Amino acid sequence: MGGGVADGSLTLVEGQSDAGKSVLLPAIDMGFLKNGHKVLVFTSENSARSLLSQMDSLGLFVLDYMLLGNLKVYSM
After folding, report:
1. Burial class of residue 22 in the structure, from the number of CB atoms within 10 Å of its CB (0-12 exposed, 13-18 middle, 19+ buried)
2. What is the DSSP string of 21-76?
3. What gap in Å lies between CA 40 and CA 57, rounded to an integer?
4. Four-point Cα dihedral 73, 36, 57, 19, nearest 10
5. pTM (global) more than 0.90
6. For 3-56, how does the pLDDT look when each residue is reduced to its tens digit (9 = 90+)?
């Protein structure tokens, strides 16, 4: 990723079906959250509830971050 994702940046991730986006992005999001950053997710494939469920299934429990306002999910 050429040095990572810059703080405050807007990053678009797209790819073919089964390319691994749904596993990579939650891991990146969790890394930011654990380091005290806020994360906004704009998705055309998930609702906030389904994204939360997906992250839980990966062992990435983010409900507390959502309740504190550190993680916000917007469905498009």
Report:
1. middle
2. HHHHHHHHHHHHHHTT--EEEEESS--HHHHHHHHHHTT---HHHHHTTSEEEEE-
3. 20
4. 70
5. no
6. 778 878 888 888 898 898 888 889 989 999 999 999 999 988 888 899 899 999
Cross-strand bridge partners of residue 71: 39
Sign of the torsion angle spanned by Cα atoms 35, 39, 43, 46: positive
The single residue listed with the structure tokens 């940046």 is 9
Question: How many C-alpha atoms does 28 have within 13 Å on its Cβ side?
Answer: 17
